[in-house]
Amino acid sequence: MPETPSAPVLLGNEPGSFPHGVLAERHPAIVRQVRAAFPYGPEQRAALDTLLENCAAGVVEPLPDHAPDRDRWQRWGLARYAGRSWFDVPWLWSESYFYRRLLEAVGHFGTGPWQGIDPFRPAKLAELDAPETGRELDALDALEGRPADERARALLHGSLWGNRADLGFRLSAAGAGAGPDTQGLVADDSDALWALLPPSGTGTLCLVADNAGRELVPDLLLVTELLAQERIARAVLHVKPYPYYVSDATTADVVDAVRRIRAADGAAADHGRRLWAALTDGRLTIRAHPFSCAPLPYAEMPGDLREDFARAALTVLKGDLNYRRLVGDRLWPPTTAFADVTAYFPGPVAALRTLKSDVITGLAPDTVAALDDGGAGTWRTGGTHALIQFAP
Ligand SMILES: O=P(O)(O)OC[C@H]1O[C@](O)(CO)[C@@H](O)[C@@H]1O
């Protein structure tokens, strides 16, 4: 970490700020969306209504005594934050805990009929069935016969821009897709990243996934291609142990995505077959570590996860939330060195992310000046810009 880690931790208590908008507007919209998407019974509907009221004006409430992860959440900050306003605790924490409360309300962790049901599944499945997903899979045909290096770079960019496809984000950024309004990269360390993945690689890639559907599909295509090109010998895909941030990928979402790719035509079907083989022969494994849903920065990761990342030739973290957790959810000066704020990470690490929150590091001063002068004023949060950053 830099010698003076003095950047302020983001809170949601400033009206008009991006974090405040997420807590005050997006979270209630998510509760209403979930309530409308399922024929929940009176108990779940009442609990959702209570959560709706609580989000707007209430304080953080403890988990029930019977909650299986109560002790873990107590350690993760609940003991400290219970009784305080959602808006006055770290934004990362209140967002994460909101999703935990939402799952509590719909009985996801209970013993009743809604146990294990993903309240975001309808939206995730709609994504996989969308014509855009089909078009993206069809586009693989055009890569056939291209040089290996070109294919790998194209799939890296597919995975990067796939991060725009985030369902929670689309609740407030109307119509966001990988559309024509996308701008260039604000940082691009991809050459250094490729240097770690030479064609005769024997190492492991850890890919810390973000969203299901239209982000996970290109993530899986990238992993398959890297295995096929023997740039890596194995891959570990880190997913969430339970539904989170609307569209974050769980193991069930991986299965859906793999089946979707395998059912496609043309080159995509070959990817699907290779992907299936890699999963079944153990070259690609899935890990759903509890810390993947923790309301904490990766600097506080537990020892077993640290060992996983330490063993990898490269860890790639996808998406905005993982970036916030990687660099700490702080308002760093944008020119703060990425390598400094990730120095604690136990191995080489790369971030692939479209910009959807105020957190940013590792930019050149002239890049910051050009972005600030650019007029739109939303380059940090609008999802129009992206980055590939790497630290050895
Ligand atoms: O899916 P991603 O790229 O992690 O983005 C989710 C993002 O949603 C937000 O919580 C709210 O926009 C972001 O700040 C967050 O990082």
From TrEMBL:
Domain (Damage-control phosphatase ARMT1-like metal-binding): residue spans on this chain: 23-366
Q: Which cofactor does it need?
A: Mn(2+)
What reaction(s) does this enzyme catalyze?
A: beta-D-fructose 1-phosphate + H2O = D-fructose + phosphate; beta-D-fructose 6-phosphate = dihydroxyacetone + D-glyceraldehyde 3-phosphate
Q: Which Gene3D superfamilies match?
A: 1.20.930.60, Uncharacterised protein PF01937, DUF89, domain 3 (3.40.50.10880)
User: Where does the sequence pass through the membrane?
Assistant: none
* Entry keyword set: Hydrolase, Manganese, Metal-binding
Kindly indicate whether the keyword Iron-sulfur belongs to this entry.
Answer: no
List the InterPro entries hit by this protein, alphabetically.
ARMT-1-like_metal-bd_sf, ARMT1, ARMT1-like_metal-bd
Q: Does the keyword Hydrolase apply?
A: yes
Similarity-based family: Belongs to the damage-control phosphatase family. Sugar phosphate phosphatase III subfamily.
Q: Which PANTHER family match?
A: DAMAGE-CONTROL PHOSPHATASE ARMT1
This protein is called Damage-control phosphatase ARMT1 family protein
